[in-house]
Amino acid sequence: MSIPFPPPGSKIELEEGSTLSPRFGADGLVTCITMDAATGEILMVAHMNAEALAKTLETSEAWYWSRSRGELWHKGATSGQVQTVLELRVDCDQDAVLLKVRVAGNGGCCHTGRRSCFYRKVELSNGEPRLIID
Amino acid sequence: MSIPFPPPGSKIELEEGSTLSPRFGADGLVTCITMDAATGEILMVAHMNAEALAKTLETSEAWYWSRSRGELWHKGATSGQVQTVLELRVDCDQDAVLLKVRVAGNGGCCHTGRRSCFYRKVELSNGEPRLIID
């Protein structure tokens, strides 16, 4: 990893400073939200370890840590659905990252073949939640 | 909690079914992304346990689990920045939730006083990441 991330400093540095010092959790990960830069649609939620975040910054393509496979994941490497990162943002306490991306290939993102992973809304029917694909 | 969440079923039920069966992690939480329903701006990332999710569904106001305080958190209860939930979505494997909300009070969300927690973008300067407030 060629981009080092210093450990988080004081609360004021973390929240107002110009140093990227991600607060990786006990599992070594931060949460990442990925948004379509053109439409604003939320495409997916995934996780990044330090190496994935560094590679994302270095290459301007989205890299994640696959918790299910336990490996670094260059999104789109096999599917062609590479995500070019147009903007990368961090939240106040630096434990979450927001990527605004342009998706290559067929524009999909979800492993079910859909464009976004958030293809279902929750509605209450007689007080019971039900999922509706829309 | 009056809304029970059944344990996750098969992969096909989880991904294509109409049953809300959240996959709470080992810490009992799912990730929640909160978006301004009117502007599409990402306001915050937080977490929900089963009780917070049930209360959110029952009241149409956002409830989270505060990991720092270790308690249920009715967002806006003290600040007036209550989040009315207009839409609640779930992702393919049901371990993340997306809320589209309308914020009451002064419309803020972040504890720093800003509207969104994602008030900084990351830019590379001579290969080093720097945070820019914009």
Helix count of chain A equals 2
Class from secondary-structure proportions of chain A = mainly beta
Strands of chain A, count = 8
Instruction: Give the SSE string of chain A.
Output: HEEHEEEEEE
Residues in helices of chain A, as a percent range:
10-25%
Fourth-tier CATH superfamily name of chain A:
Phosphoribosyl-AMP cyclohydrolase
- Level-2 CATH architecture of chain A: Roll
Model description:
- Chains A, B: Pathway: Amino-acid biosynthesis; L-histidine biosynthesis; L-histidine from 5-phospho-alpha-D-ribose 1-diphosphate: step 3/9.
- Chains A, B: One of its GO terms (molecular function) is phosphoribosyl-AMP cyclohydrolase activity.
- Chains A, B: It catalyses: 1-(5-phospho-beta-D-ribosyl)-5'-AMP + H2O = 1-(5-phospho-beta-D-ribosyl)-5-[(5-phospho-beta-D-ribosylamino)methylideneamino]imidazole-4-carboxamide.
- The structure is a homodimer of 134-residue chains.
- Chain A is mainly β and 134 residues long.
- The first copy, chain A, has one domain (11-133): Ubiquitin-like (UB roll) (Roll), CATH 3.10.20.810.
- Chain A is 12% helix and 37% strand.
- Chain A has helices spanning 11-16, 50-59; strands at residues 30-36, 42-48, 63-66, 71-74, 83-90, 96-103, 120-125, 128-133.
- The first copy, chain A, is globular.
- The termini of chain A are far apart.
- Chains A and B meet through strand 1, strand 2, strand 5, strand 7 and strand 8 of A and strand 1, strand 2, strand 5, strand 7 and strand 8 of B.
- Strand 5 of chain A pairs antiparallel with strand 7 of chain B.
